[in-house]
Amino acid sequence: MTAISERVSEPIEQQASKRVSQSVFDGSRLRVVLLVDVYDGAQQQFLEAYEEMGKQVSSVPGHVSDQLCQSIENPSQWLITSEWESAPPFLAWVNSEEHVRMVQPMHSCIRDTRSLRFHIVRETGGEAARAVTGERRLQASPRIGDGVIRHALTFTVKPGSEKKVAELLASYESPQARVDDTTRLCRTSLFMHGNRVVRAIEVRGDLLAALRHVARQPEIRAVEEAINPYLEQERDFADQESVRVFFTRAALPAVHHVTSGQEDGEAGRHALYYPARPGMGMRLAELLAQHDEQAAEDAGSPILRSTVFERDDVVVRLIDVRGALEADVASALGLADAAQVSELTTLLDEGAAKKDCDLARLLTLARMDLVTDRRSAPDA
């Protein structure tokens, strides 16, 4: 399992910034809800698979408890709830190869699933409940969001195929932005760093519905088929399990989003890739989140918005910037000042950390190439 810093499990002493609409670094407890639709007749098989998984997950650091519930109205519908000390240990586990292997026996008996994650803000129960649970951390205050869900996918392609893959990914026709009455695609930004592809999407409404909508579009399916031969991880569209495992491994969750509250129609969108040392991905993401939070309070900062994504020591920072990145290299890298570059490099893998601690060089190493950035019309 991926290690995380000790700091992320400490209580939060100060009020959360109102400029941060999303963060896993509050230190508060996490409630995970998994809605499961089981094939008719597969309930016993599902129960046995869950019991085996339960034995393993109970020893995962940060796991507190879980429950398995069956609908009293429809025996095919199940609910799994779990509680975690905080979000980072859950994300480290759920995004690990260990988790992919652990849940595989369940998939043959599941028709559909939906995972929801919540910070615990308030709870009732009085003295009796506190005697059992102890003084556990709650999120200090509710987040004020903007109605947009941010998510990313990342995968690698075979070395030597980068140019061809970039051409394919830049040439497709945009899918219809409107998904249904409540969901639409807002923006899709696609970047490459060497042979790594990162596709960041912004959705207003239901993320899962939007992802399924995109996957069904003929133009998107054609592009996915075209890049298939170049993928380092094989994917067979005729095998649903192969596709599921591919996109499970490709998921790159957003762990922090902050905005300065300023708008600039000329702002450019950039992405930076920070390969972390083994076990240091979440700590690196937290460091970048802290610095971007400070920048959001500075009216003179060129960073208008920042979203940090992290999975399995892959950290990507998506930023909207006023002016050129080179005009303020420290801010572009997510540093409060140039003196903090040494702290950043101690968290980077050897390939990046062994370079001289030169900000301009580090920016060159981290900067991703923009392939395409598409926005839907406001009334789409």
Model description:
By secondary structure, the chain is of the alpha+beta class. The protein is 32% helix and 28% strand. The chain is built from 13 helices and 13 strands. It has helices spanning 43-57, 87-94, 97-107, 126-133, 162-171, 207-216, 218-227, 240-250, 281-296, 329-333, 341-347, 350-353, 359-366; strands at 20-23, 30-38, 63-70, 77-84, 110-119, 148-156, 184-193, 196-204, 251-259, 268-275, 303-311, 314-321, 369-375. Strands 1, 6, 7, 8, 9, 10, 11, 12 and 13 form a 9-stranded antiparallel sheet that branches. Helix 1 (43-57) runs antiparallel to helix 3 (97-107).
Summarize the structure.
The protein is an alpha+beta fold and 380 residues long. The protein is 32% helix and 28% strand. It has 13 helices and 13 strands.
